[in-house]
TrEMBL record:
One term of GO molecular function: carbohydrate binding
GO cellular component: outer membrane-bounded periplasmic space
Keyword tags: Signal
Protein name according to UniProt: ABC-type xylose transport system, periplasmic component
Family matches, as Pfam families: Peripla_BP_4
Location of the Periplasmic binding protein domain: 34-313
Organism superkingdom: Bacteria
Signal peptide: 1-20
Similarity remark: Belongs to the bacterial solute-binding protein 2 family.
Record's subcellular location: Cell envelope
Length: 361
């Protein structure tokens, strides 16, 4: 009778999902762990992403293990391998260089751990289940459309106007960077072709304009070189940058070259609407940025984690764009918003992303 009772108890545990390695445990029990791998803490953006993910996942009862790789590829490989060894229930990965993660992600798949790509597509792996990101081509499109509208490029040819123009694009090991570049060039290439935009460095391809690891220092060095080599006798009118960090580097280079705010300062774009960037928009050192509400992205990713761990299907709005060379990864794309001095209060402050006090100069 004791053996029969024990068998019945085991059967009850299995049926209620409490048995085995905990993969069926309720999130409310606090025993399910989500590993969150972020690329670096050197960018405000990734700190905010990690904090939002942790807050939202913990609110659902999950334990959250956040790891920052500080843009060190091998460090991120080790972090993922360690999380797999700890038998986390799900992995969320924003890659430093996804091509280096293929073997580590294969270990996760072999261990039965679902993987969600966060804002950077995981390439060349079939271990990834879903992808949460912003519309990366849309980011580039909005940057380019802002330039087009602000400088009235559509009528410039007929009116005899032209503008000097340089590109500072994202990291070649980040798949998003190419999407963004394509969005920019889809809008602006015709103006380069007809002479409305003049790139005096001649560097307009993605290969020529991409900056490894989104390095602010490299962007500044490039800008300093361009300004001395090509713009000694003619001012730079437009710096099309793909990241707020690049815009910070541009500011330093422009100040060093003697540019003056309110006189010959160029139009400078950016992405992420970081706190410093928003302050620079207010003062005029940066013209615009792309606001990406990381709270929303974290919310969508959190819902993906929740669905995966409950055996359900998450909300998806794109099943065609993101081919990682192994599969087309089902994705949710959040929409980016262009912000400048005219609308930052309505979008950023009224939206509760930053307060007026935070933005005091």
């Amino acid at each position: 009778m004791k053996k029969i009772g024990m068998l019945l108890l085991v059967l009850a545990l299995v049926m209620t999902g409490v048995w085995a390695n905990g993969s069926k445990e309720s999130a409310a029990s606090g025993k399910m762990t989500v590993g969150v791998c972020m690329p670096t803490q050197s960018s405000e953006r990734w700190i905010n992403d990690a904090a939002n993910m942790k807050k939202q996942l913990e609110a659902l009862g999950y334990t959250v293990d956040v790891q920052f790789a500080e843009d060190d590829v091998q460090a991120q490989v080790s972090q993922i391998e360690n999380l797999v060894a700890k038998q986390v229930n799900c992995l969320v990965v924003a890659a430093v260089d996804s091509s280096a993660l293929v073997n580590a992600l294969a270990q996760a798949k072999e261990a039965g751990i679902p993987v969600i790509a966060y804002d950077r597509l995981l390439m060349d792996t079939d271990a990834v289940s879903y992808y949460a990101t912003f519309d990366n081509k849309g980011v580039g499109t909005k940057i380019a459309q802002y330039i087009e509208e602000t400088k009235k490029l559509k009528t410039a040819k007929a009116e005899g106007r032209s503008y000097t123009f340089e590109l500072f694009m994202g990291s070649p090991d980040d798949n998003n960077a190419l999407f963004l570049y394509n969005g920019v060039m889809e809008v602006l290439q015709p103006y380069l072709d007809n002479g409305v935009l003049v790139c005096k460095s001649g560097r307009t391809s993605f290969k020529e304009t991409c900056i490894l690891r989104w390095s602010q220092e490299t962007a500044q060095q490039w800008a300093e070189n361009y300004l001395s080599a090509f713009y000694a006798n003619e001012k730079l009118d437009i710096a099309c940058t793909a990241f707020d960090g690049f815009a910070y580097g541009l500011r330093s280079a422009l100040e060093g070259a003697g540019y003056t705010l309110g006189q010959d300062w160029p139009l400078v774009t950016g992405q992420d609407a970081e706190l410093m960037a928003t302050k620079n928009i207010i003062t005029g050192y940066q013209t615009m940025s792309i606001y990406k509400d990381t709270r929303l992205l974290a919310q969508k990713c959190t819902s993906m984690v929740e669905a995966v761990l409950k055996g359900a299907k998450p909300e998806i709005n794109d099943t065609t764009q993101y081919n990682n060379n192994k599969l087309v990864v089902p994705s949710y794309l959040c929409q980016p918003v262009a912000v400048d001095k005219s609308n930052y209060k309505a979008i950023i402050v009224d939206g509760g992303y930053y307060t007026e006090d935070q933005l005091k100069i």
